[in-house]
Design goal:
The structure holds 2 protein chains of 2 kinds.
Chain A: E1 3-11, E2 17-26, E3 29-34, H1 41-48, E4 56-61, E5 64-65, H2 70-75, E6 77-80, H3 92-103, H4 108-121, H5 137-148, E7 155-159, H6 167-179, E8 185-190, H7 193-199, E9 202-207, E10 210-216, H8 217-224, E11 228-233, H9 238-244, E12 246-253, E13 256-262, E14 272-273, H10 278-289
Parallel strand pairs in A: 3-8, 3-9, 6-7, 7-8
Antiparallel strand pairs in A: 1-2, 1-4, 4-5, 9-10, 11-13, 11-14, 12-13
Helix pairs in contact in A: 3-4, 5-6
Chain B: H1 2-15, H2 17-35, H3 55-68, H4 70-87, H5 90-94, H6 100-117, H7 120-131, H8 143-172, H9 175-197, H10 202-208, H11 213-219, H12 225-230, H13 237-260, H14 273-280, H15 282-287, H16 301-320, H17 323-345, H18 355-361, H19 366-381, H20 383-386, H21 390-394, H22 400-433, H23 441-469, H24 473-493, H25 520-544, H26 554-564, H27 567-594, H28 600-614, E1 624-635, E2 640-650, E3 657-663, E4 671-677, E5 681-686, E6 692-701, E7 706-715, E8 734-736, E9 749-750, H29 761-766, E10 789-799, E11 803-806, E12 809-816, E13 819-831, E14 837-840, E15 843-849, E16 852-858, H30 866-884, E17 891-897, E18 905-906, E19 911-915, H31 932-942, H32 963-978, H33 980-997, H34 1015-1033, H35 1035-1049, H36 1059-1068, H37 1075-1083, E20 1086-1099, E21 1105-1118, E22 1124-1127, E23 1131-1138, E24 1144-1152, E25 1156-1163, E26 1169-1172, E27 1187-1189, E28 1191-1192
Parallel strand pairs in B: 1-10, 16-17, 17-19, 20-28
Antiparallel strand pairs in B: 1-2, 2-7, 3-6, 3-9, 4-7, 5-6, 8-14, 10-13, 11-14, 12-13, 15-16, 18-19, 20-21, 21-22, 21-25, 23-24, 23-26, 26-27
Helix pairs in contact in B: 1-6, 2-7, 3-8, 4-6, 4-8, 4-9, 6-8, 8-9, 8-13, 9-17, 10-11, 10-13, 16-22, 17-19, 17-22, 19-22, 19-23, 19-24, 22-23, 22-25, 23-24, 23-25, 25-27, 30-31, 30-32, 31-32, 32-33, 32-34, 33-34, 34-35, 34-37, 35-36
Classes of the chains: A alpha/beta, B alpha+beta.
């Protein structure tokens, strides 16, 4: 199954261009869509998830025309929205069973079996009778994944799933995502670079509605290999460095300022080579585009 | 710190939307009350001469609204601390240096102040309401008029409500508990007021009511209009004491809360049930962890429906437990039971608790159900969005229509559930309150689920549509409310009565126990189905526009709906619209073409035009009716009647006349086969108003000469209509007789008919007619042109097995061609408008009394009171025959008819026609309850003499000649049959009705001799006055006067009787020393303030008791507004000594010339109470102090 997006455009009523001629080819497996807040990630995710219309362009999922055959998409879609909540008095088991029914599972027995399976998988079995209103962020997010996994989806879309999770929950969530079958398309939209570097073999970077990079994650890293340099500088010199170097990022460590720059050649001047991370790729492309 | 908390709390409230919504609700409601000047509506404020802004009215508003606004208080005050828990900010407050007093006090007082301020809505509403109406309806606005009720009523009420719910919410930290407690609180208050309402002890009631509603009404029960307008609200010690008690209670509650409240983050860690569940089911968990489950997804239509039901089911559960639903349903049911009890169970006038009575009360249920539907509709439409779960739901393979339908079904289920609760409330109250087991389940189901359910569903469809179209829930609420108000404004206030455009409404109908839904049934069904199809259309539109993704812009949704419409949807939409229009066309055809359409406005216009155009003929000399010959054939199953016959008219004037006016409106008559005179004549003029026709005779009619007016008319009914339905012609219980205006619309009327004129000055003003007294003053006596003494005969027929009952004596009865024929005749003169005939299927009870046959025709399910009615008829026939002359007919027939007509009981010649709601279903439970059936029968029988044998002039006070004497016969017969105690009981009730009716008279009180028709005068004061008169001058003297009058005026239409003639006759039989009685009771408004001051007794050696009694008496004259002025005493007033059982040991009149009198009275038995006018012959506003306990003397 392949998800292909061609020349997708969307401008909101207030004039904001959310998607500007976006084209993407996404195959089975986890695909990371990386971009800063407001880059158009959620618009793209919602459009694929049938929740929004595009002004032009097309999306196909295998044989399905996503923009028109919405019902067909919904049958094979698992969607974890960026923000979501529940009727606080529902409990996990009942709501999940309810959703299983709405997905189209007729027999109560197989519904219960599926729900049990999923709750165990997302490690919420013990909390199945607990009211959703009392769930923590991480639990809620895991519950969301359980919802998205209902009914054998062929396409799963997870929008900013790790935002606001503590490190332990983040790891747990990453494990969960990585377990999701290889045979389906999983699109992970995020502004957290680690999500993509941990999970996704393929990725794209989106900024201001445009795709600024797409391809294999490893390849993207190798392309920058040997071109990233780091240096500790006094904070007051930052401005000066900004003029002279292509600074990708600044970070503080133990109270000191470190800068990372991109340069095809060794910049000398006290710089030393740094390991390439996906973050460098991210900033590199954002910078390049800007 | 207190100040900061207080101010923030207060300001936050002022900034919230709810604050303005609540204020707005009060404003709009009170504006509606205050701006209403139509006396026939009178919501909360009676529209009379009392000012809309009288302090008492303001106090009442505050008291009522504080109770009805309990939900507002719960939300504003109850939540003030609880919302800190909800938002989680409480931990911040608990960790800063803050005292409990500052925190709790600040929150409480801040929110209370806001709660108090929403009542400014009432004040503004009152101002704006008064601003748009005439000056006469309101007085000067005074600051104290608002201040005192606010301080005395409002503040303590809000404090109490606030204290209770603030404490509950703060201590339990849960809003749901608080809402449930709100429901329970309303239930308790409801049942408490229920109990208090029927309690005799005023003092207890005044103290026990925490919201001072009872004190306000009890303390002002007998206030006159001038009292209400000129006094501040009553500030009696009892009321203040009440306020102190309940304020203390509030403070105690708050102290308790302050004491219990702790700055801790969790109340008590509870052991969670979940852990236990978890352990039990661990084995189950490992069970399934094997292979991942495989299944197919079912997307068939059938399963989509199951999904829909499943969604609806979940939503229904949530709604059914929603606090708003619980509170409003509880309130509604309390209200329902109280109204039901009030209508059928009030001790003096009980009815059997029939199912139809209960269902009648449910008509007011919209007050609760409509806000509920609007509110819950908003909740469910926005449910997913409010929970932020819409994206989860919207990406499920659930079609839009399923999603929409599930919401509609949930709302339907909640309405159904509500109606089910209503039904069980009815059944349970019938069984357990009244021990009544004849439950008409069929009627419950038809009424609640056949009619009401659809009605409310139509609103539900609109609510979902509106909420679907608007951008947010609150706008949705606004537009739903707007829709509701526009509906009321257009169709009720502006009286636009084309109900074809009033979406979702079935026209008003009345259910009759005799005739069932009768001819209203087709109308109800057609309208219901008509709107059902439109609702389907709205439903499809809603589901096409259903908000199912993030593209919520309406423009987009409309585009998508148009593009995405399937052929099936297009075809079904077209089909539904087509059927809707066809149905509409059919209703139109029935209402406007098969039946004649007349709106209320049209009728009023027509009445005004009639008066404007033709009143110049008012004094045109016309021939008088002398004989009426009728032949009426009923076809009940087709609701048709054929009327043939002639009038013999005679010129009784001194000159020849050649112009005769005949009125024959086409409102009821569908076809005139012929209408002409026996002599040659031309129809020279025909007006559009009430079939006004003028005929010119070729040869004038000379004095003493006769002429016949012949007519052959058809009154057929066609189809159905909600406008001017021919309720007189029905399947069971047809009645042809005078309408409410006093004219029989089925027969021609001779001469200018002043009954068609607009009566109410309110309406006369609207149509530019001069305002005038409701009846002319004595000096302007006008001739009543349409009432004469005539002889009559008639042949009536109807289908088998129905019976015909008509005026006069039955001469012959036969059956022919499957029809029943009856020949009725009266040789004794009868008044022409009193000729009536009835066709129906009845049970018959018959008896013979002194050669007079008494026959009771009743509905087979209403057999309870036949004996009482018979007894009353016998008693009154005896009394009247003995005192006023022989009863002129060989039979007296008493008939029960459906409730479509204007009367409770009406007595045309030789008949009593009784509305099915009034008499036969009365429930007289205890042997010592007043037998009103006996009394009413006696009253109606007396009408065969008064005014059966005489013709009163149509002037003010004319009711003295009919109703007053009928009331007199009632009380005298009652006293003879049941004894003095029962008569006194009845009189006490009349006294109460009179005194409490005075301030409701919109035209101001008048003395009896000048009264217009007013219940509190015509019936209540009449009985008191007549009883007092006979008590003073003796029954035989009263009867002598009456007999003399009847002998002088009997059957004469040349000499008509005035009320002054009656009073003069009384005077002739009254000694000079007692003439003041006639003046006091009949010619003026006179009241007494009588009081027992002290009473002591001593046992004498001879076994006698001597009582030293001191009493005081004051006498007042009142004007029409109730302003009193004291006048000197020269009256005979009863002094009485009573024993334990309230039987009299001593009862004698004493002459009073001084206000205070000391007496020494000797009695044989031990006295218990003593005082002045103990059994209330005189009119006295404070009747509780007339008698006091007799104490044992000190020496």
């Amino acid at each position: 199954m392949q998800l292909s997006i061609k020349n997708l455009c969307k401008t909101y009523n207030n004039g904001i261009v959310a998607l500007d001629n976006v084209s993407l080819e996404i195959c089975n497996g986890l695909f990371g869509l990386l971009g800063p807040n407001g880059a158009g990630k959620s618009t793209l995710m919602r459009t694929i998830a049938t929740l929004q219309e595009a002004d032009s362009g097309e999306i196909t999922l295998g044989e399905i025309d996503v923009l028109r055959q919405k019902m067909e998409v919904k049958k094979i879609l698992g969607y974890l929205p960026q923000n979501f909540g529940f009727y606080p008095k529902d409990n996990a088991f009942n709501l999940l069973e309810h959703f299983t029914l709405l997905k189209g599972v007729r027999e109560k027995k197989s519904r219960r079996k599926k729900v049990t399976e999923l709750l165990q998988r997302v490690n919420l079995w013990e909390q199945r009778k607990q009211k959703l209103g009392s769930f923590s962020n991480g639990m809620r997010q895991r519950f969301g994944i359980a919802l998205a996994l209902l009914g054998h989806p062929k396409l799963i879309i997870v929008d900013e799933p790790t935002a606001g999770l503590d490190p332990a929950e983040q790891i747990r969530f990453h494990n969960l995502l990585s377990e999701i079958g290889e045979n389906i398309v999983v699109v992970l939209s995020t502004h957290i670079v680690d999500d993509v570097s941990d999970l996704c073999a393929n990725m794209a970077i989106i900024d201001q509605g445009q795709i600024v990079m797409q391809g294999s994650t490893i390849l993207a890293l190798t392309r920058l290999m040997g071109k990233i340099w780091e240096k500790e500088i006094p904070k007051s010199d930052l401005l000066q460095y900004q003029e002279n170097y292509n600074i990708l990022s600044t970070r503080l460590f133990a109270g000191k300022t470190f800068i990372r720059v991109h340069s095809d050649t060794f910049p000398e001047n006290g710089f030393y080579p740094g390991d390439v991370t996906l973050q460098d790729v991210y900033f590199y492309h954002l910078k390049k585009c800007a | 710190m207190f100040k900061t908390i207080f101010i923030t709390e207060f300001k936050n409230n002022l900034r919230s939307v709810t604050f303005f919504i609540f204020t707005g609700i009060f404003l709009v409601l009170v504006h509606m009350f205050a701006s209403n000047t139509d006396p026939s509506i009178g919501i909360i404020m009676p529209v009379g001469r009392e000012w809309h802004n009288a302090p008492l009215v303001i106090a009442r508003l505050f008291a009522f609204m504080s109770v009805y606004g309990i939900l507002f208080s719960i939300i504003i005050v109850g939540r003030s601390v609880q919302k800190d828990y909800k938002t989680g900010i409480f931990e911040f407050f608990f960790t800063i240096p803050l005292t409990k007093t500052a925190y709790l006090g600040g929150r409480l007082l801040g929110s209370l102040l806001a709660n108090f301020l929403i009542f400014s809505g009432i004040i503004i509403g009152l101002f704006t309401g008064c601003f748009v109406i005439d000056h006469a309806y309101y007085g000067p606005f005074s600051f104290t008029g608002f201040l005192i009720p606010a301080v005395v009523i409002l503040v303590p009420n809000l404090l109490l409500i606030g204290a209770i719910f603030f404490s509950l919410a703060t201590l339990t930290r849960k809003m749901i508990t608080t809402y449930v407690a709100g429901v329970i609180f309303m239930l308790i208050y409801g049942f408490m007021s229920f109990g208090l309402y029927f309690m005799e002890n005023d003092t207890f009631r005044i103290l026990a009511d925490p919201f001072a509603i009872f004190p306000l009404s009890d303390l002002t029960k007998y206030w006159t209009v001038s009292d209400i307008n000129n006094n501040l609200m009553p500030l009696s010690e009892l009321l203040l004491f009440n306020r102190i008690i309940w304020t203390t209670v509030s403070c105690l509650i708050l102290y308790f809360t302050w004491n219990k409240f702790k700055f801790v983050s969790a109340i008590e860690p509870k052991i969670h049930k979940d852990t236990i569940v978890h352990r039990e089911s661990e084995s189950e968990a490992t069970d399934v962890s094997g292979s991942p489950s495989i299944f197919v997804l079912d997307d068939s239509f059938g399963f989509r429906l199951i999904k829909c039901f499943c969604l609806a089911g979940r939503e229904f559960k949530r709604l059914a437990l929603h606090p708003a639903f619980l509170i409003l349903t509880a309130l509604a049911m309390i209200n329902l039971v109280i109204n039901f009890y009030g209508n059928v169970g009030v001790t003096s006038n009980n009815l059997y608790p029939l199912t139809s009575w209960f269902l009648e009360q449910t008509e007011l249920m919209w007050i609760y159900l409509i806000p509920l539907i609007i509110f819950l509709g908003g909740v469910i439409v926005w449910r997913e969005r409010d929970n932020h779960s819409q994206q989860l739901y919207d990406t499920l393979p659930v079609p839009d229509w399923t999603s929409y339908l599930s919401k509609l079904l949930a709302l339907a289920a909640i309405i159904f559930f509500y109606l089910l609760i209503t039904m069980f409330t009815g059944i349970i109250s019938q069984i357990f309150i009244f021990s009544w087991t004849d439950i008409d389940l069929d009627l419950y189901i038809k009424y609640l689920f056949g009619i009401d359910f659809l009605n409310y569903m139509h609103l539900a469809v609109v609510v979902l549509l509106i909420q679907n179209l608007v951008e947010n829930k609150y706008m949705g609420f606004f537009f739903c409310t707007l829709y509701f108000f526009l509906d009321v404004l257009i169709f009720i206030v502006f009286k636009y009565d084309n109900i074809l455009f009033r979406y979702g409404h079935v026209p008003a109908f009345s259910y009759s126990n005799i005739n069932g839904f009768g001819h209203f049934a087709p109308m109800i069904i057609w309208y219901s189905v008509y709107w059902l199809f439109f609702a389907f259309v709205l439903g499809i539109i809603s589901s096409l526009l259903w908000r199912r993704n993030e593209e919520t812009h309406l423009k987009y949704r409309i585009k998508a709906a148009v593009l995405g419409m399937s052929t099936f949807q297009k075809i079904s939409l077209a089909f539904l619209l087509f059927v809707f229009f066809v149905m509409g066309a059919n209703i139109y055809w029935n209402k406007y073409i098969l039946n004649q359409y007349v709106s209320e406005k049209n009728i009023h216009r027509m009445q005004a035009d009639y008066e404007n155009n033709y009143s110049k003929f008012k004094y045109l000399s016309q021939p008088q009716m002398e004989h009426v010959d009728l032949a009426v054939d009923f076809v009940p199953h087709q609701r048709d009647a054929f009327l043939r016959g002639y009038y013999v008219l005679v010129n009784k004037s001194d000159s020849a006349l050649d112009t005769i006016i005949v009125n024959l409106p086409d409102l009821k008559i569908s076809k005139i086969n012929h209408l002409n005179f026996s002599e040659e004549s031309d129809l020279t003029f025909q007006g559009a108003e009430f079939g006004f026709r003028m005929y010119k005779l070729k040869t004038p009619l000379f004095p003493g000469k006769k002429i016949r007016l012949k007519f052959d008319l058809e009154a057929k009914t066609f189809g159905f209509t909600d406008n001017n339905p021919k309720n007189e012609l029905v399947r069971n219980g047809s009645f042809i007789g005078p309408s409410e205006s006093g004219t029989n619309d089925y027969l021609p009327v001779i001469g200018y008919n002043s009954h068609y004129e607009l009566r109410k000055n309110y309406n006369r003003k609207k149509y530019g007619l001069p305002v005038r007294p409701e009846l002319p003053a004595a000096e302007n006596a006008e001739k009543m042109t349409d009432a004469f003494f005539v002889t009559y005969e008639g042949i009536f027929s109807t289908s088998l097995p129905q019976t015909i009952i008509a005026s006069g004596d039955l001469v012959k009865h036969w059956t022919e061609n499957g029809r029943n024929y009856y020949f009725y005749k009266s040789d004794v003169p009868v008044q022409n408008q009193d000729i009536v005939c009835i066709s129906g299927e009845f049970e018959i009870a018959a008896a013979e009394h002194d050669g007079i046959k008494i026959e009771v025709y009743y509905h087979k399910k209403h057999p309870w009171n036949i004996q009482r009615i018979m007894k009353g008829a016998k008693g009154a026939l005896d009394y009247c025959s003995k005192n006023f002359g022989r009863y002129p007919y060989s039979s007296m027939r008493i008939v029960e008819v459906p409730n479509y007509f204007w009367f409770g009981a009406y007595s045309p010649t030789s008949l009593i026609v009784w509305n099915e709601k009034a008499g036969f279903v009365s429930n007289i439970k205890e042997p010592d309850d007043v037998d009103n059936l006996y009394g009413i029968t006696a009253h109606e029988i007396a009408h065969d003499w008064w005014p059966g044998k005489i013709l009163p002039v149509r002037i003010e006070g004319m009711e003295l000649l009919s109703e007053a004497i009928a009331q007199y016969v009632w009380i005298m017969c009652l006293e003879k049959e049941y004894g003095k105690t029962m008569a006194r009981k009845r009189l006490r009730r009349e006294m109460n009705d009179y005194l409490s009716g005075r301030n409701r008279d919109t035209t101001g009180e008048r003395p009896l001799a000048q009264s217009y028709f007013r219940y509190y005068l015509t019936y209540a004061k009449s009985m008191i006055a007549m009883y007092a008169l006979q008590d003073n001058i003796g029954e035989e003297n009263v009867n002598l006067a009456l007999e003399r009058i009847i002998n002088a005026y009997k059957y004469r239409d040349d000499k008509r009787l005035k009320p002054s003639d009656l009073l003069n006759a009384f005077r002739e039989n009254t000694p000079d020393s007692l003439l003041y009685v006639i003046r006091d009771f009949f010619e003026t408004i006179t009241l007494y303030e009588n009081k027992a001051l002290s009473a002591e007794y001593e046992l004498l050696e001879n076994g006698q008791y001597v009582i030293n009694l001191a009493v005081s008496a004051h006498k007042f004259r009142a004007d029409s507004a109730g302003i009193q002025r004291e006048i000197p005493l020269n009256d005979n007033i009863y002094i009485g000594v009573l024993d334990e059982k309230n039987d009299e040991l001593y009862l004698k009149k004493h002459k009073f010339t001084q206000n205070v009198k000391n007496l020494e009275i000797f009695v044989e038995k031990k006295p218990a109470r003593a005082g002045i006018d103990p059994f209330l012959i005189l009119i006295d506003r404070d009747r509780t102090d007339n008698v006091i306990k007799v104490k044992k003397g000190s020496n």
